[in-house]
Specification:
The protein is globular and about 70 Å long. It has two domains: 12-272, no CATH class; 378-435, no CATH class. The N and C termini lie far apart (47 Å). Residues 1-6 have low confidence and may be disordered. The chain has helices at 12-21, 27-43, 59-62, 115-121, 123-126, 140-148, 378-385, 391-404, 413-434, and strands spanning 87-92, 95-96, 110-114, 152-157, 167-173, 178-180, 183-188, 193-202, 206-208, 211-216, 221-229, 235-244, 249-256, 261-270, 276-285, 290-299, 305-314, 319-328, 336-345, 351-360, 366-374. The protein is α/β, with parallel strands linked by helices and 435 residues long.
């Protein structure tokens, strides 16, 4: 388990052959891996000459040599909790950790399991869905994930199944210049409902390249929360694919506070009439952190609706990128789609790049987009100072009000309160450092 990882090596194909030879899995999955690695070799690593990556500087990542991670023991106290009963699956260095996991009683037609173990027991439930969703075809790290994933989470809810207890998925990386490729496969059949919380964290330096695939049947509902709180030395390059059926509902909350470089590419296909999708993102970046979010929402059927609300708070020399696309196909009449990007700069050296876009091919739609970037309102700060509030506290109140708005739509009260405390602590540190 100590061979050099293939990402930045000339010997990447031999490393892949060695990795694939150790796997015991159905031929269909083995073919997927080979096709994905071929795709990665064709794509190559991104460069800044490519439009989608021109603002993402991977030079620090490319200069490093990463290893396949070794097994590691993690104390249960180092892992986050939701503060309420939950189905919990924990993964350390990309591998299932049964001693840190706990599944509560669930409906008969629900399966929540390690993806690797489920593949051995129920391959017929996984092969039709794994790496089948459209989107991210030109994303090299998604291809690497498909080629090299070792384990991940599999959630399958049959028709009409409602899992009221939240599903908590924790991915911890133990550093050591390693690469981890977590894979999440979420399949909600017609009318199924689930709440999922995914947390990425770790210590030391590593590359985490996760992929989430979520397929929602007609009338299904998914509340998905992703908390990226990687080590300050880590690189996070993830992808999310989402496909929705008729009258389905998807609510995605994406919080990014960690990593020296963090990027998420998300592609959502609203492939059923009346499907609705809400994407709510918040990024906190300081020092020389870089955070990048690329979103494409594809309205393929009539009467669909989507809302994108992304905010970032930047301090020091931090940089953020938001690149959002709303695409409405000719047949997707009566679409209602909105996209907003708001950025708050706490330092003159911070930079926020925002690129909201529309591609409208239908003629009976309501679509709009907007972006704002600026500093704290001096009048609002003066108003608080005039009432005896110290300068640092006044700034903290205004910044917290700006950022906390993104948390208010999270329905899980204990999670919302924990993230609010994290937000307050992070922003208080930023304010103190800025004084």
């Amino acid at each position: 388990m100590t061979a050099a990882a293939p990402v930045f090596q000339d010997s990447s194909r031999p490393a892949f052959i060695e990795f694939a030879a150790d796997r015991r899995e159905p031929d269909a999955i083995a073919r997927l891996r080979r096709a994905a690695f071929d795709r990665f070799e064709t794509l190559g690593l991104p460069t800044r000459q490519q439009e989608a990556w021109r603002l993402t500087d991977l030079s620090a990542l490319k200069a490093m040599t990463f290893q396949r991670p070794a097994d590691a023991l993690i104390d249960a106290g180092a892992l986050p909790t939701l503060g309420l009963p939950a189905h919990r699956l924990a993964f350390v260095n990309g591998r299932f950790a049964p001693g840190l996991s706990h599944l509560r009683e669930m409906p008969d037609r629900a399966l929540i399991a390690s993806l690797d173990q489920a593949l051995l027991a129920y391959p017929q439930w996984i092969e039709p869905y794994l790496d089948r969703l459209p989107g991210l075809a030109q994303h090299p790290f998604t291809a690497l994930n498909t080629a090299f994933w070792e384990d991940g989470a599999f959630v399958h809810l049959s028709r009409g199944t409602v899992v009221e207890t939240p599903i908590h998925l924790i991915f911890h990386a133990a550093g050591g210049d390693s690469t981890v490729y977590p894979r999440l496969l979420l399949v909600l059949d017609e009318g199924a409902q689930a709440t999922v919380v995914v947390e990425y964290q770790g210590t030391g330096r590593y590359l985490n390249a996760p992929v989430t695939e979520a397929r929602l049947g007609d009338g299904a509902a998914l509340h998905y929360h992703q908390i990226q709180q990687e080590s300050p030395q880590a690189f996070h390059l993830g992808g999310i694919r989402l496909q929705q059926g008729r009258n389905s509902e998807a609510n995605l909350h994406l919080l990014s506070v960690g990593g020296q470089l963090a990027r998420t590419d998300l592609e959502a296909l609203l492939d059923g009439e009346g499907a609705s999708c809400t994407l709510n993102g918040l990024t906190l970046a300081r020092d020389q952190q870089f955070s990048d979010v690329h979103v494409r929402v594809d309205h393929a059927q009539p009467h669909g609706s989507s809302q994108q609300r992304f905010k970032s708070v930047l301090d020091g020399k931090a940089r953020t990128v938001f690149d959002g696309m709303i695409h409405v196909r000719p047949h997707a009449q009566k679409t209602d789609a909105r996209q907003v990007s708001r950025n708050l700069l706490l330092s003159r050296q911070a930079q926020a790049h925002s690129n909201p876009r529309l591609e409208i091919l239908a003629d009976d739609v309501k679509c709009g987009h907007g972006s704002t970037t600026g500093f704290l309102d001096p009048d609002a700060e003066f108003y608080l100072r005039a009432r005896g509030i110290p300068a640092a506290q006044a700034r903290a109140i205004l910044v917290h009000a700006f950022a906390n708005d993104s948390l208010n739509s999270i329905r899980l009260t204990p999670l919302r309160e924990r993230l609010a405390r994290l937000l307050a602590a992070d922003l208080a540190l930023d304010i103190m450092e800025g004084e």
